[in-house]
Amino acid sequence: MPGAQVADDAAVGAGTTVWELAQVREGAVVGTECVIGRGAYVGAGVRIGARCKVQNHALLYEPAELADGVFVGPAVVLTNDRAPRAVDPDGTLKRAGDWHAVGVTVAEGASLGARAVCVAPVRIGRWAMVAAGAVVTSDVPDFALVVGVPARRIGWVGRAGVRLRAVPDRPGVWECTATGERYEERAADGAEGVVGAAVTLRESGPAGRSAG
Questions:
Q1: Which residues are catalytic, by number?
Q2: Helix (H, G, I), strand (E, B) or coil at 120
Q3: Could you give the 3-state DSSP secondary structure of residue 96?
């Protein structure tokens, strides 16, 4: 749209809209059928998959990576520096080459609520949901619902984004009330440092089908 700033060497997929005052930096890749909202910032080399929505004034700093179908709410921030300083210990102004950028990775279908902050390096799992205003400092499992500062898991969500309910007499089995899909808890690989303890969720089939 008029007023958007898109670098000449940025790649923007077919059907994608970049709204006014948004900035897409050098070497960034934005997939097909995306929406980049007003005033959003997409850093140099950031990669965004297909059918993503990046809402107004969200800030995606390099080297962030978003898979397909990711939702980024208004004023979300994906950071890239674990120990930010403007100057060195001797007071010298830091330059671009004086620090090593680390990124946030957001997996397929995940959603980041308005004003959420993800402190790199972290991974947001598939179809997870980060509540508005949350501050994520550890990896988030697939399908997890996390809230708070720092973010902690309080439940699970399905692909529809609806909070799952426990299936009676089936420990560790959860069901989506919107779609009938069922999910099953399992041990997470490399679970140390993951928000919400050492479990994640996997899809196990429609309602009425035996989990596992």
A1: 57
A2: coil
A3: helix
DSSP conformation letters of 140-171: B-TTEEEETTTTEEEEEB-TTSPBPEEPTT-T
Please tell me which residue, 204 or 137, carries the higher pLDDT value. 137
Find the angle CA(133)-CA(139)-CA(141) to the nearest 5 degrees.
Answer: 95
% of the chain residues with pLDDT over 90? 82
List of long-range contacts for 81-86, beta carbons under 8 Å, 24+ apart: 81/120, 82/119, 82/120, 82/121
Query: Could you read off the pLDDT of 59-105 as tens digits, one per residue?
Result: 999 999 999 999 999 999 999 998 899 999 999 999 877 888 999 99
Cα–Cα–Cα angle for 17, 21, 26, nearest 5°?
75
Of the candidates 66, 82, 209, the one whose C-alpha atom is nearest the C-alpha of residue 128 is: 66
Residue 15 CA to residue 206 CA, distance in Å, equals 33
| Sheet (strand 23-24) strand order | 5-6, 23-24, 41-42, 59-60, 77-78, 117-118, 135-136
Global pTM? 0.90
pLDDT reported for residue 200? 85
Residue 15 gets the label, from left (phi > 0), alpha (psi -120 to 50) or beta, of left
Whether the predicted pLDDT of 46 surpasses 80: yes
Q: Tokens at residue 57, please?
A: 């004034």
Q: What is the dihedral of CA 93, 97, 100, 101, to 10 degrees?
A: 90
pLDDT-based confidence at 211, cuts 50/70/90?
very low
Let me know: does 129 contact 148? Beta carbons within 8 Å.
Answer: no
